[in-house]
């Protein structure tokens, strides 16, 4: 199939996702529990953009990349040769996606892989397979040839492991926990050295200086942590507040947390739905307990909300120090940690003292502070005076144990191409 | 340090390697056994070329500004990965030391390099040149040792951010596992191969025979890209075999410091035994041994230049990487058949075709699953052209 035709199919898929927007958003909320308002306005909006904007754009990059010849890319070999690179598809891509943003994660995986000419075997999270299956149907309706996109629902240890260990799968792309990411990397080494890309967990530092716009910092920090019931790999879960502003920030954050409305995610007033399941609920409650026993100050929340469903009260801990479990382990729930800092050197050391490296943010009006933090924190994405700003064109991925490889933007294509260098002897070169 | 300053240091390193080329090439021949003329003209010519090429890159590593939606300014920074653990093989020791050190430094990383235990000498000398070039203390570190001890220490270290390894596929797999067991360090691997050369009846026969011969026997067959499966089309098969055997018989073997010698010894006893064992398997499995087949002389690990004809795809000599002076010449009929057979391997490092027909050339270039593909040539490369494997020949591309 010509590359340009792939673009046509992807555009058609975007049309179909938009046509079925209400249905998909509802199905997502039913399966995942996230507020319908968020499903519709955020998940679906960005999903459609990935299929409509970024994948055709990536397709165009692909076509340009494949035009690189000796002249343009100056693969200047010594001797009489014409040398060029081809950016070929990797082949069969196993893709394993998580339950926190099912549709969106599916688009981040399908889009670039298809743009680069690969075929896909996708395993959605067992907790939330429904929207992935509907979109699979839409790909058939869009006209993708049978066999190109395959969705196989199942559990990690069975279906996921089968993909990671398969001798004929050329690549596996995984978004999920660091623990499973490690298992997948090992599986690659034990089987056929399939290419691996991983988007894993985080314990992202959010730095608030005393000169920040306090209202903005409080609001963005609140959303940066509590969005999606705290179930975001890049949640700003270690909030370092400069000494001078600490007390005010803590008080205002607690007030803000108390305003959150919990309830039926189909209710348009709801801010926070339930956690995804009992396993996560128990894990979060256990970590909240550890915060209490290890001596952090719990200022609001801390318990189950109501007596039906896995709802957890928005919880805020202050006086958190760096060796508490709530400051080190990924909670993946509505639990905020606020710690105090004084001085840049101390900040760099503490912010970087983690095996994670997914995201970071800084709130300040000072140019120097903003740039020094952006440069000094080892994280794949740094936000300045904002949080969770995603775009189909901006690459996203982790440093260190938060993963490797970047998704979205042009960088996302590199994960799905295999470079072949072709060198042809010519009688005599003239440049 | 400014990016441009890194470039100056790498340029200086290139100058020093060039200054000491005679010494380095001699030391390499002493340690490895490869003919001196090749140490000098290939290993160190390439090493200098790689240093000069990457010396130009540091201040050209640029990020992007990205026009995202909303009132935001978005840009990417291309940062160094950090501490790179590099593990190099014994077949081109000094050359690979440069191939690993120089791009890492160009990108702003620091390096801890473990040279092959069989051949540490030139790498240690290059480390001394790094110091003389003015590369700051602590940036380039060479730790000689064994794979199981020094190598594993690097691959399992929680503070090493990346491993760059060139060597066998077996060890490459262990390194990938080690990354998963420890800190998910980034891994790039350059591994083995069983690279197919396809010679069509319309090829320039002399050229095809000579190039295939040279690129199998070079470095005593100890090349990851060795042309170790030579598929020759029916009509010219017998003549191709005859001319290849001629060349093999004429190939001089002896003291690698002696001007005319083409082949020195294999690297050590273990490799020597392995190569002879595979030659035995060729005989047992029914290939026709046209020449060579045993030890050369009675001192040192020298092996006669060996040619097998009537080789079929299921023989061990057609499937396993031999890493010795043993050529397999295999018959084929049609283009579709040879493409299937060429790709029927878990390796995917290189491939080549000899033909005058543009359609055959480009069809093969597109269809053979390998990271590098040559048309009417072999092993033509430069630091500017990316090199690496498909499938189990590796992950990632080097210059």
UniProtKB/TrEMBL annotation, chain A:
Keywords: Oxidoreductase. The keyword Oxidoreductase applies. Transmembrane segments: none annotated. InterPro entries: Ald_DH/histidinol_DH, Ald_DH_C, Ald_DH_CS_CYS, Ald_DH_CS_GLU, Ald_DH_N, Aldehyde_DH_dom. The keyword Flavoprotein does not apply. SUPFAM superfamilies: ALDH-like. The active site is at 199. Pfam families: Aldedh (PF00171). It comes from the Eukaryota. Residues 1-422 form the Aldehyde dehydrogenase domain. Belongs to the aldehyde dehydrogenase family. This is Aldehyde dehydrogenase, mitochondrial-like. It comes from Priapulus caudatus (Priapulid worm).
UniProtKB/TrEMBL annotation, chain B:
It holds the Pfam family Aldedh. The keyword Oxidoreductase applies. The keyword Oxidoreductase applies. It comes from the Eukaryota. Residues 1-399 form the Aldehyde dehydrogenase domain. Coiled coil: none annotated. The active site is at 190. PROSITE patterns: ALDEHYDE_DEHYDR_CYS, ALDEHYDE_DEHYDR_GLU. Keywords: Oxidoreductase. InterPro entries: Ald_DH/histidinol_DH, Ald_DH_C, Ald_DH_CS_CYS, Ald_DH_CS_GLU, Ald_DH_N, Aldehyde_DH_dom. Belongs to the aldehyde dehydrogenase family. This is Retinal dehydrogenase 1-like. It comes from Priapulus caudatus.
């Amino acid at each position: 199939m010509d590359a340009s035709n792939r673009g046509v199919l992807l555009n058609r898929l975007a049309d179909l996702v938009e046509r079925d927007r209400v249905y998909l958003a509802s199905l997502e909320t039913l399966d995942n529990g996230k507020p319908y308002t968020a499903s519709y306005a955020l998940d679906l909006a960005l999903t459609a953009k990935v299929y409509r904007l970024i994948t055709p754009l990536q397709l165009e990059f692909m076509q340009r990349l494949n035009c690189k010849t000796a002249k343009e890319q100056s693969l200047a070999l010594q001797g009489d040769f014409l040398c060029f690179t081809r950016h070929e598809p990797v082949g069969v891509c196993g893709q394993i996606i998580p339950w926190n943003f099912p549709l969106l994660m599916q688009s981040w995986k399908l889009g670039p892989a298809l743009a680069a000419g690969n075929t896909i075997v996708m395993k959605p999270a067992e907790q939330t397979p429904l929207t992935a299956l509907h979109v699979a149907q839409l790909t058939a309706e869009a006209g993708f040839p049978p066999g190109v996109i395959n969705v196989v629902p199942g559990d990690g240890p069975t279906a996921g492991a089968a993909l990671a260990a398969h001798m004929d799968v050329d690549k596996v792309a995984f978004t999920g926990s660091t623990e499973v990411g490690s298992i997948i990397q090992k599986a690659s080494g034990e089987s056929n050295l399939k290419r691996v890309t991983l988007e894993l967990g985080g314990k992202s530092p959010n730095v608030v200086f005393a000169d920040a716009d306090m209202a903005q910092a409080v609001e963005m920090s609140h959303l940066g942590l509590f969005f999606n019931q705290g179930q975001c790999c890049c949640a700003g879960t270690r909030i370092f507040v400069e000494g001078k502003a600490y007390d005010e920030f803590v008080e205002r954050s607690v007030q803000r947390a108390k305003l959150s409305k919990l309830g039926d995610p189909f209710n348009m007033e709801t801010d926070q739905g339930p956690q995804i399941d009992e396993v996560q609920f128990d894990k979060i409650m256990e970590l909240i307990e550890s915060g209490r026993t290890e001596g952090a100050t719990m200022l609001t929340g801390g318990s189950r909300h109501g007596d039906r469903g896995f709802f957890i009260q928005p919880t805020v801990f202050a006086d958190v120090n760096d060796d508490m479990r709530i400051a080190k382990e990924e909670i993946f729930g509505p639990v905020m940690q606020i710690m105090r800092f004084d001085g840049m050197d101390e900040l760099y050391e503490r912010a970087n003292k983690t095996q994670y490296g997914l995201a970071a943010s800084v709130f300040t009006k000072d140019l120097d502070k903003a740039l020094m933090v952006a440069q000094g924190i080892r994280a794949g994405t740094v936000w300045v005076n904002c949080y969770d700003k995603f775009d189909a064109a901006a690459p996203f991925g982790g440093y260190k144990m938060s993963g490797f490889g970047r998704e979205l933007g042009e960088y996302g294509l590199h994960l799905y191409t295999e470079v072949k260098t072709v060198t042809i002897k010519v009688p005599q070169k003239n440049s | 340090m400014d990016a441009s300053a890194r470039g100056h240091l790498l340029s200086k390193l290139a100058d020093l390697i060039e200054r000491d080329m005679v010494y380095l090439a001699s030391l390499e021949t002493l340690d490895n056994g490869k003919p001196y003329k090749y140490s000098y003209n290939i290993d160190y010519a390439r090493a200098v070329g790689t240093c000069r090429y990457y010396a130009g890159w540091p201040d050209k590593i640029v990020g992007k500004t990205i026009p995202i939606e909303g009132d935001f300014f978005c840009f990417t920074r291309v940062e160094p990965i950090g501490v790179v653990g590099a593990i190099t093989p014994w077949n081109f020791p000094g050359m690979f030391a440069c191939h690993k050190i120089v791009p890492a430094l160009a990108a702003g990383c620091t390096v801890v390099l473990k040279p092959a235990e069989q051949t540490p000498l030139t790498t240690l000398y290059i480390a001394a040149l790094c110091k003389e070039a003015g590369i700051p203390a602590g940036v380039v570190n060479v730790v000689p040792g064994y794979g199981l001890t020094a190598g594993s220490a690097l691959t399992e270290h929680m503070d090493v951010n990346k491993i760059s390894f060139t060597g066998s596929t077996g060890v490459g797999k262990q390194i990938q596992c080690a990354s998963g067991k420890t800190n998910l360090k980034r891994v790039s691997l350059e591994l083995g191969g069983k690279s197919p050369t396809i010679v069509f009846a319309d090829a320039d026969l002399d050229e095809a025979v000579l190039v295939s011969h040279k690129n199998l026997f070079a470095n005593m067959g100890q090349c990851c890209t060795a042309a170790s499966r030579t598929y020759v089309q029916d009509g010219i098969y017998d003549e191709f075999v005859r001319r290849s055997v001629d060349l093999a018989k004429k190939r001089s073997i002896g003291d690698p410091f002696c001007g005319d010698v083409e082949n020195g010894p294999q690297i050590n006893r273990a490799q020597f035994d392995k190569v002879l064992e595979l030659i035995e398997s060729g005989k047992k499995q029914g290939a026709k041994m046209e020449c060579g087949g045993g030890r050369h002389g009675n001192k040192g690990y020298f092996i006669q230049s060996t040619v097998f004809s009537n080789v079929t795809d299921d023989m061990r000599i057609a499937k396993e990487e031999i890493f010795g002076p043993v050529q397999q010449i295999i018959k084929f009929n049609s283009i579709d058949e040879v493409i299937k057979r060429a790709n029927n391997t878990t390796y995917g490092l290189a491939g080549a075709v000899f033909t005058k027909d543009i359609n055959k050339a480009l069809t093969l270039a597109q269809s053979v699953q390998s990271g590098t593909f040559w048309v009417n040539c072999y092993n033509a490369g430069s630091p500017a052209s990316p090199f690496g494997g498909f499938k189990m020949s590796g992950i990632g591309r080097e210059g």
